[in-house]
Amino acid sequence: MKLISRRTARGSRAAAAALAVAAVLATAGSATAATAEKTANIPGSQAPAVPLRVATYNIHAGAGQDNVFDLDRTADAIRDLNADVIGLQEVDVHWSSRSDFIDEAEALAEKLDMEVFFAPIYDNAPATEGGDRAQYGTAVLSRYPVIEAENHEITRLSTQVPNPVPAPAPGFAEVTVNVKGSHVHVYSTHLDYRANPSVRSAQVADTLKVLAEDSGPKVLVGDFNATANAPELAPLFKEMKDADPNGGGTYPAVNPTKRIDFVTVSPDVTVVDAQEVATDASDHRPVVADLELHQRGA
What we know:
Blueprint: E1 2-3, H1 11-40, E2 50-58, H2 71-81, E3 85-93, H3 104-112, E4 115-124, E5 134-142, E6 146-156, E7 167-179, E8 182-190, H4 198-212, E9 218-223, H5 234-239, E10 241-242, E11 261-265, E12 270-276, E13 287-293
Parallel strand pairs: 1-4, 2-3, 8-9
Antiparallel strand pairs: 2-13, 3-5, 4-5, 6-7, 7-8, 9-11, 10-11, 12-13
Helix pairs in contact: 2-3
């Protein structure tokens, strides 16, 4: 297990530091990527597609549909997906007694022998002096090397302050994964849950700006807290393809009534298969998709 350093993009100084770290991290995979790129560029030849299984799962802070906290049950549900990369939502890191103050991101990575990047939405002071900071957010687990990671800000309406107003806040996770020489950007997001769609509309606009800064294959997964035909999601689905447009419901986990959890991909990614998976290890069902990547390098 490898815990990816937690970085948040805040201003030009943070961006410069992120680029420097990314350069160092990318060095380890550069030889493989360069070799693959040379192969793909040989006249008359075409590199074969690279398979990738991805998933999205709102883990409900490790509690099942029965509201009983059981992180082993959560890990078993994730393991059963047999996914290479999994975007997680509602992840607690030393958050509260509801999850036994566990660092769920690191614990799941250890149980599953995967790398992890955690992107806190909230980062509160420790409950006791000298204790761990209480954090809550999204995460990405990966079997493949993560060569770059970033915690982006999007518009949010905080649940931690009285009388909140929409404002930029972190918690939109992005990792760049080296999948056998093919570099793919994977994002994990959790959109606003309120009935009023205005914050989700702003979040979609912010998301598209982040995605526009990256080139190459992209996979955006998450709990969108809206169904596919919601007007506020329309701009997103003009740019990203729903991997499971005919899929069944994902919420609630038992007898689901709506599909609000999505795997979406850029047009250069092929969807081979996708489905929601029946499990009551959370109050959401996960969605898993088998993809093919066709581009080498970042």
